[in-house]
Write a structure and sequence with these properties.
The chain is about 35% helix and about 25% strand. It is of the alpha+beta class and about 180 residues long. α3 packs antiparallel against α4. The protein is elongated, with a radius of gyration of 19 Å.
């Protein structure tokens, strides 16, 4: 990069970076799933339905914030997670803070957005039922700094499981509930 590595402002940079990275590595994040023990669910309060109607079948939690660290470039990426699921008699609802805990658990490590999307979907699947859709919209510092993306652009990834993978109407209904996206 053409820098003088002996310059006093840069001498401590490797140590600062390693301390920061060690802080991420040693963090002990836990999923806080009050009432969810060994796949059983108890005392889980209802979420909000798409369009605010509780008689709808599609439930959603939108704009769960996250930040993560690109495992390829060691630079941050951040954004929002949207989770939709079909409400069946056998499925349970999760409180927003429980879903946020899952997002934080998987986000707070070296990661790629595609895997993060899939991990969140697969984690909520046993609790919410067999029909889950997760959309992540993120800004990647690594892509911006390399000139691939411009400031303000984002990358979206989607994981669809169950009915969302075969029902375009259900997919469309959930995607249309996401503010400023895919509509």
């Amino acid at each position: 990069m053409g820098e003088d590595l002996s310059r006093k402002e840069l001498v401590g940079t490797p140590v600062h970076f390693l301390k920061w990275f060690d802080g991420i590595r040693s963090a002990k994040l836990e999923m806080k799933l009050n009432g969810c023990i060994n796949g059983r669910t108890e005392c889980i309060r209802p979420s909000l339905a798409v369009n605010g109607k509780h008689d709808e079948q599609i439930q959603s939690e939108l704009n769960l914030t996250f930040w993560s660290q690109c495992e390829h470039h060691l630079l941050p990426f951040h954004g929002v997670v949207h989770i939709g699921y079909m409400c069946h008699e056998r499925s349970k609802h999760m409180a927003r803070q429980q879903l946020q805990s899952i997002v934080n658990f998987y986000g707070f490590k070296l990661q790629v957005q595609e895997r993060l999307t899939r991990q969140i979907a697969e984690s909520v699947l046993p609790i919410l039922g067999s029909d889950v859709m997760v959309v992540i919209e993120a800004n990647h510092v690594c892509m911006i700094s390399r000139g691939i993306e411009k400031f303000g652009s984002n990358t979206a990834t989607i994981a669809v499981l169950g009915q969302f993978s075969s029902d375009p109407v259900a997919r469309s209904r959930f995607l249309s509930s996401i503010p400023n996206a895919f509509s």
